[in-house]
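At this stage, I wrote out one protein, both as residues and as discrete backbone shape codes, and that material follows here.
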Amino acid sequence: MSEEQGVLHVDLGKKAVFPSYEGGIPSEKVNVISWIKNFINKTFVITELEVRKLRHDPTELFTRAAQPALWMLVFGEVFTRVRAIPTGNLSYLDFMAPGILAQSVLFVAIFYGIGIIWERDLGIVHKFLASPTPRAALVLGKALSAGVRALSQAVIIYLLALLLHVRLSWEPLSLLGIALAVILGAALFSTFSLIVACIVKTRERFMGIGQVLTMPLFFASNAIYPISIMPDWLKVIAHVNPLTYEVDALRAMMLVGGTSVYGISTDFVALIVSIIGLVAIGAKLYPTVAR
């Protein structure tokens, strides 16, 4: 019997070879752990690269917030006085504020894919594809950077809600949950945007489709009215719309007296599962944008 370089040989007429171990951990597990660490590291590198672009045009974040601000200031103020929409124990402006935050995140993320087309034209996509970075890490890194951008929208909507006397919750866990919901929502819709960009491949087509998709996603959700008052066919769409679950989570955590229809855990599971599915599709389609 002899032991050389972590491999145990037993002489019983034949040599039996056992898997090597490193530090008491099977080498197969070491390789998996190493791959996961490498994947996470490269994902955050891509995220950092994307976030740095904000230095060149930080005003984009504020211009994106203009439309949601108008919704709160005009639409919200008017319908608060009309009281035509049942919102339970919440004023309509309180009910609407989380929906407008989700809308703001949607508007920032849904046009994120156009950056992929610009990167293709500049040759950046080809450099990414030539690197050893996993395609899923490229897609996920871009998605997380959209989430970081969207946090600025949360700050703006919070300030506006304060001015309008919305009853906001300031509990630390609630604020952390809101930040997570905003990041997940932006990651989800930016990945969806990337998939659209990979399919259409031109800026003109992408902008047209982006405009078409934004409002249906917004109106087919619980952002500005409860699902209970929708017609049956629209309820079906709302239940499979990820924006519905983002708004539901935000409404429960953002407001004093806010409640979740589906349960906050269900909301987050729905968002995470949707992101995983879209990242897998995006990773598959990402190389096609360079063709």
Confidence is low (pLDDT under 50) at residues 1-24. Residues 47 and 250 are 24 Å apart (CA to CA). The radius of gyration is 24 Å.
